[in-house]
């Protein structure tokens, strides 16, 4: 076992009233290693305090943190907002804005709309065909 683990174990087993003696009452050591021992004693952590934590930090509840960071569904509020508005933009203006935001590449261009073909009908009526038949073939 290392000395630091042994020291921590002894600190945990100490009686709560008995801690470190005041600095004036500690027995001073005179010798070549006295300064190093004093530094080690000064550096030893006290059992009630954790130096790894930030000063004044409060431990938060994990449930509160979960609820705070949980994704919120804004669909209902957004739908109400969108349906509430009565203003409808002019179609020419919306087309202009869309054209400005569109890229120049061919993949960004909308598909070309083919012109609708009208169903082809004959210009001539049945009466015209009968008249032509009579004149061309000589039938009554």
Automatic annotation (TrEMBL):
Keywords: Nucleus. Its main location: nucleus. Pfam families: AROS (PF15684). It is found in: Nucleus, Nucleolus. Residues 1-56, 99-122 are annotated as: Disordered. InterPro entries: AROS (IPR023262). GO terms for molecular function: enzyme binding. Signal peptide: none annotated. One of its GO terms (cellular component) is nucleolus. It comes from the Eukaryota. Belongs to the AROS family. This is Active regulator of SIRT1. The lineage of its organism: Eukaryota, Metazoa, Chordata, Craniata, Vertebrata.
């Amino acid at each position: 076992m290392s000395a630091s683990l042994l020291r921590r174990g002894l600190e945990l087993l100490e009686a709560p009233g008995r801690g470190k003696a005041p600095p004036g009452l500690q027995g001073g050591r005179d010798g070549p290693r006295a300064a190093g021992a004093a530094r080690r004693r000064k550096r030893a952590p006290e059992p009630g305090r954790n130096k790894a934590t930030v000063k004044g930090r409060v431990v938060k509840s994990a449930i509160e943190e979960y609820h705070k960071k949980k994704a919120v569904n804004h669909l209902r509020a957004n739908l109400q907002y969108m349906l509430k508005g009565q203003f409808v933009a002019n179609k020419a203006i919306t087309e202009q804005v869309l054209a400005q935001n569109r890229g120049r590449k061919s993949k960004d261009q909308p598909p070309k709309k083919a012109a609708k073909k009208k169903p082809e009908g004959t210009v001539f009526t049945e009466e015209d065909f009968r008249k032509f038949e009579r004149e061309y073939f000589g039938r009554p």
